[in-house]
Design a protein that fits this description.
One of its GO terms (biological process) is methylation. This protein is of the alpha+beta class and 867 residues long. The chain is built from 24 helices and 38 strands. The chain has five domains: 130 residues, Alpha Horseshoe (Serine Threonine Protein Phosphatase 5, Tetratricopeptide repeat); 139 residues, 3-Layer(aba) Sandwich (Rossmann fold); 223 residues, Hnrnp arginine n-methyltransferase1, CATH 2.70.160.11; 92 residues, no CATH class; 176 residues, Hnrnp arginine n-methyltransferase1, CATH 2.70.160.11. Strand 7 and strand 8 form a beta hairpin. Helix 10 packs across helix 11. The longest helix is centred in the middle third of the chain and has 24 residues. It is globular, with a radius of gyration of 33 Å.
């Protein structure tokens, strides 16, 4: 028996309090020395060593975290940038993981790691970090902007349009319901997206439903949606490509029905052919046997959609033309005739670059200036998705040639393509230009050497193929009065003289052309669509030329007054740091040469070899000396520090900044670049443009609402999807054509904000204005555009028919119901380069107030802290 006395004595032993940590002089000395070393390394810009010292200090003494947080962040960011520039990507992310382990709730570090992940192409992981940073601090503007930016990549805007398309959703539901009722009890949804088609199958009574989704973001979203709709236990979602699925590893048995909508505007661009061939071979039950018509549907396989018919027509469209072909012979005094041809990277021709896309996409009904159909709709191709032999032979078929009658005289700028998706025998979906659906049309630009002019009763010879599992469509010739004129060699005046093709003559001609092909090809260039549209913008280049002429005249006058101090032979230095291809540096060099005195030394920041070759060719053909135009990046050691002095003792006379992105947003870090550029200008020098004024107006637009968020449960057949996908709603819509946007204007245009690149004291961070409502309605958005002031008098606008820029719009979270005469208070804020707008309807305004405040009034006084 245990000793009771011993137990009681033990129980009566007094408890000790928590033991005080022993002082460890050696440890404290190490912490102190390491902290001092970290600070010394920072002063010496040895960020890698400083980072190691900080890691040691903070791991040994966590109590110092608050004290050292700012210095640690600074060190981490500098060291990460250095590792990035050295290509040590794994080391970079190792450092961030160590930092996040030390500071797991530091939203700045979490957000910064997301930025690096995004730049490296890890969009899903980046989104997770931005989302975490927002949870840690919901009002963190950098994380909010980053999340909005990455949301466009992770959940493309067409998801919202598609889910809001009740007609499309309902037809899919009916086709699935019919198939399940006929006995298709096991279903696989390929490319499930939000899971809506899989849920339709389960609701229709399918016994087993599987779904697969490659995108991690969409996979997680589908899991949330299915769970919220009470189907988590009855729909199994796999995060993988269907091409990787195996039986019984991923699903237990073959299924009787595959549903999918992995189609794009060109039908085949999302890989539906490859997916269905694999499904028929490995995942689906065999198709019905015609010799056994009594086979039960549960024992055979089928696909929804069952097939598709592709249609196309030739169109004339100035908007398409100016984005895919050089349409002008001169801009800003520069002769462009030396360039044989400039093409966009969208081409189906046999000599197209491997990186060329076969088509682009447009909503024909929204193209500025409209379009003219030059032919009637032509049936191009029929595909049976339930015939695996046909699918397998599709890509190996010979090129099919079609003759399409011309019904309208004009210039063929493109072939527009759409399709009818046959879900089953009773339900189909059309993506045609006349349909009010979520679909755009595929556009195949015609990029011949001369305008492809056609007349009534001509015929277009088209080639149709499915090479590389893409639908490829090419206009190769015009047939007129029994004669054929090939577009790659003809000119309009040759119509009456060119004879029918002779094989022997063609062969001799081809052999002879080999000798001159090198010279010919050297004068053919490929530019991005937006770069071609910019080059076609005559007004922009002419305005820039006049602004530079005025600046050079002013600078020459100043130098003449300071003749004793400044050499008259000293050139004017001009730097163009435009993004992508630009001829502004060459235009300026030409102006300096034309003046005959005080030459201009112009520098271009273009990087691509082809861009530089094009500028050299144009310089030579315009008589510009080779030394007058140079490429700036070959003169700087660090490509990331483009804005530097032209020489140690020199300053720039003019710096051209690229301020507006093609999509309609202000370029990132614009004001920071302007601040640095001002410090690099000589007296009287100028930044082009010197000022940007943002204009906007109030509109009501259901289209913008449909494209920004899922509007409740009605469009999605009663399924609860909106709250989940609407997490990826972004407040600013880009790439808008305001001239064709379906909307009602509820106010006159007003000036929203001004950015002054030459005068920092004129800038402000936020501004409030009052806008008078001119028509009753519901304010859903504020579209905006820019007036770009090259100088005080010369301006260009981004809202014009010849502009290569698009417009953007802020979509309000809470639409405002307004009446004529109401006042709406707008608050416009600029954080870095991102614009945000909030709107509040004022309840009542007296006549005196209305008179006094009709003009926009800044809410805050200008602040110099912005730039």
């Amino acid at each position: 028996m245990p000793n009771e006395m011993a137990r009681s004595k033990k129980a009566r032993r007094p408890r000790r309090g928590p033991r005080e940590p022993r002082e460890d002089p050696a440890r404290n000395e190490l912490i102190s020395r390491s902290l001092e070393s970290a600070q010394q390394c920072l002063l010496q810009q040895d960020y890698g060593t400083a980072f190691v010292h900080y890691l040691l200090v903070l791991n040994l003494a966590p109590v110092l975290k608050d004290f050292a947080r700012e210095s640690f962040r600074f060190t981490l960011f500098k060291w990460a940038d250095e590792l990035d520039s050295l290509g040590r990507i794994q080391d970079l992310f190792d450092c961030y993981e160590q930092a996040v382990e030390l500071f797991p709730t530091d939203e700045v570090i979490v957000n910064s790691m997301g930025e690096h992940l995004f730049r490296m192409g890890f969009r899903d992981e980046a989104a997770a970090h931005f989302h975490k940073a927002l949870k840690l601090r919901p009002d963190f503007p950098e994380a909010k902007e980053n999340f909005y930016r990455v949301a466009n990549w992770l959940v493309e805007r067409w998801h919202f349009l598609m889910l809001n398309d009740h007609g499309r959703n309902r037809k899919y539901q009916l086709a699935i319901q019919r198939a399940v009722q006929e006995g298709c009890s096991t279903v696989l949804d390929i490319g499930t997206g939000t899971g809506i088609l899989g849920m339709c199958a389960k609701k229709a009574g399918a016994r087993e439903v599987y779904a697969c989704e490659l995108s991690k973001t969409m996979y997680e979203l589908a899991c949330e949606v299915v769970s919220a709709n009470g189907m988590a236990d009855s729909i199994r979602i796999l995060h993988m490509k269907s091409l990787e699925m195996e039986i019984p590893k991923d699903i237990p048995t073959r299924v009787s029905l595959v549903v999918t909508e992995t189609v794009d505007a060109g039908l085949l661009g999302e890989g539906i052919i490859e997916s269905l061939i694999h499904a028929w071979k490995h995942l689906l039950l065999p198709p019905p046997n015609p010799e056994e018509p009594q086979s039960a549907p549960s024992q055979t396989g089928r696909v929804i959609p069952g097939g598709a018919t592709v249609f196309g027509m030739a169109v004339e469209c100035q908007e398409i033309r100016r984005h895919h072909r050089l349409c002008v012979s001169a801009v800003g005094g520069l002769d462009l005739e030396a360039v044989r041809e400039i093409r966009s990277p969208v081409s189906c021709s046999v000599d197209a670059d491997e990186s060329a896309e076969p088509y682009t996409t447009e909503r024909l009904s929204r193209l500025p200036g409209g379009f003219t159909a030059l032919t009637g709709p032509c049936r191009m191709l029929d595909i049976d998705f339930n015939n695996v032999q046909e699918l397998e032979s599709l890509c190996s078929r010979k090129v099919m040639r079609l003759r399409v009658p011309v019904t309208q005289e004009g210039v063929v700028d493109a072939l527009a393509v759409w399709f009818q998706l046959h879900l089953d025998q009773e339900n189909s979906i059309s993506t045609g230009p006349q349909e009010n659906t979520c679909w755009e049309q595929a556009i195949y630009p015609v990029q011949s050497l001369a305008h492809c002019s056609v007349k009534r009763n001509d015929e277009l010879l088209l080639e149709v193929s499915c090479r590389d599992a893409y639908l490829r469509l090419c206009c190769v010739a015009i047939v007129r009065d029994g004669q054929m004129f090939h577009l790659d060699s003809m000119e309009e005046e040759d119509y009456s003289t060119v004879a029918l093709p002779n094989p022997e003559v063609d062969l001799c001609s081809a052999l002879a052309s080999l000798q001159t092909r090198h010279d010919t090809v050297s004068n053919m260039f490929t530019l991005e669509c937006s770069e071609i549209a910019l080059l076609n913008n005559v007004n922009y280049h002419n305005s820039f030329r006049m602004a530079v002429e005025k600046l050079l005249t002013s600078l020459r006058s100043s130098r003449e007054m300071q003749a004793s101090e400044v050499s008259s032979s000293e050139p004017f230095y001009m730097l163009d740091v435009s993004e992508g291809f630009s001829v502004l540096s060459l235009l300026t060099a030409r102006l300096g040469q034309d003046s005959g005195s005080s030459l201009v030394q112009a520098y271009s920041s273009v990087e691509k070899d082809q861009h530089q070759a094009l500028l050299r060719l144009l310089a030579q053909s315009n008589g510009v000396e080779e030394s007058a135009l140079q490429f700036w990046l070959s003169h700087v050691e660090d490509d990331s520090a483009v804005l530097q002095r032209p020489a140690s003792e020199k300053l720039w006379s003019a710096i051209v900044l690229d301020c507006i992105e093609t999509c309609g947003l202000i370029r990132q870090r614009l004001m920071e670049k302007a601040t640095l550029a001002r410090c690099l200008l000589e007296d009287g020098g100028r930044i082009f443009p010197e000022r940007i004024v943002i204009h906007g107006l109030l509109v009501e637009s259901d289209t913008l609402l449909q494209e920004s968020a899922v509007q409740g449960t009605d469009p999605t057949l009663g399924f609860n999807i909106a709250p989940f996908i609407n997490q990826f709603t972004v407040p600013v819509h880009v790439f808008l054509d305001l001239s064709t946007l379906e909307c009602t204007h509820l106010s006159d245009p007003v000036e929203l904000f001004t950015l002054d690149l030459m005068n920092s004291s004129a800038n402000y961070i936020s501004r409030g204005i009052r806008v008078r409502v001119s028509a009753p309605g519901k304010v859903t958005a504020v579209p905006f555009w820019y007036q770009i002031y090259l100088d005080a008098d010369l301006t260009v606008t981004t809202f014009s028919q010849d502009s290569h820029w698009k417009q953007a719009a802020v979509v309000l979270q809470c639409p405002l119901v307004v009446n004529t005469g109401d006042w709406v208070q707008l608050t416009i804020q600029l954080h870095k380069s991102s614009i945000s707008i909030t709107a509040v309807r004022e309840e009542a305004v007296t006549a005196d107030d209305a008179t006094a405040e009709e003009e926009p009034v800044p809410m805050d006084h200008p602040q110099g802290g912005l730039c």
